[in-house]
Each structure stands twice: as C-alpha cells, then as structure tokens.
C-alpha cells in the first residue's frame, strides 16, 4: 500500500496519475469499496468523505474495518491511497468536525504504519516520508 498525503488542492491526484500512468488505474473517491475492480492500480481518495457517513464515536472499530478492507483489496491490485491532511493544529469548534479530524488522525497513523511507502505532496512536490 502506498499513501499520499497533503493539503487540499496540493496536487496529490495529479502526482498519483503521473506516477501510475502507464498502468490500468481505477480511481474511487469518497467510498470504501468492499470488492476490488479489475485493474492494475486501485486509487482510493477522499476517505474522509466516507468517514463522515460512519459513527465517529466508534473510531477504533472504524480504523480496524478500514485496515481489514484495504488488506483484502491489496490481494487483487496495487493499492494507492490519497488522503487529505486535516490536522495542522487547528481544532474545529463543531463536535462532528473535531471527531472527524480525530478519527482521520487515528486512521492515518494506522495507514502509515502499514504502508510500504508514504509520500507528502506539497504544492505538487513529493517528499518521501517512508
């Protein structure tokens, strides 16, 4: 699994498209598919949009479900995740937004631990972290 992180509109999607360009790629946004489509590379982006539909009070169960699903998807194709950095020290005032930020943080920690490669994209420039 490869994870690409950066702020919104920092060039993550374009970078990933160029990186995997010659291969058959399927990109899914805002969803966590249960079944892998036929492809060489499956790119999942905007997982935070899927997270909003979950009960964020149960963040540990959510993290475990996501990890298990991603491990299953990895058996069928190369998996690349594009995630948005939501932290940066800003704590939202609304409870739901705080829960989303906290759950994303816990999920990203687990993803980074499991990933073979982690790359930060900052205004289109890649910085390998792992």
Concise summary:
This is Bifunctional adenosylcobinamide kinase/adenosylcobinamide-phosphate guanylyltransferase. The protein has 130 residues and is of the alpha/beta class. 38% of the residues lie in helices and 25% in strands.
Describe this structure in words.
With 130 residues, the protein is an alpha/beta fold. 38% of the residues lie in helices and 25% in strands. It is built from four helices and six strands, in the order E-H-E-E-H-H-E-H-E-E. Strands 2-3-4-1-5-6 form a six-stranded mixed β-sheet, with helices on both faces. A hairpin with a 2-residue loop joins strand 5 (117-122) and strand 6. The chain is globular. The protein starts with a strand and ends with a strand.
């Amino acid at each position: 699994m490869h994870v690409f992180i950066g702020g919104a509109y920092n060039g993550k999607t374009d970078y990933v498209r160029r990186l995997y360009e010659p291969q058959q790629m399927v990109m899914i946004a805002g969803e966590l598919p249960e079944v892998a489509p036929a492809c060489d590379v499956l790119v999942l982006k905007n997982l935070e949009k899927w997270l909003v539909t979950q009960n964020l009070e149960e963040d540990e169960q959510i993290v475990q479900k996501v990890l298990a699903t991603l491990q299953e998807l990895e058996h069928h194709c190369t998996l690349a995740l594009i995630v948005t950095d939501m932290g940066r020290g800003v704590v939202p005032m609304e409870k739901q937004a705080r829960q989303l930020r906290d759950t994303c943080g816990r999920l990203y920690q687990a993803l980074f631990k499991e990933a073979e490669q982690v790359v930060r994209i900052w205004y289109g420039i890649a910085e390998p972290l792992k």
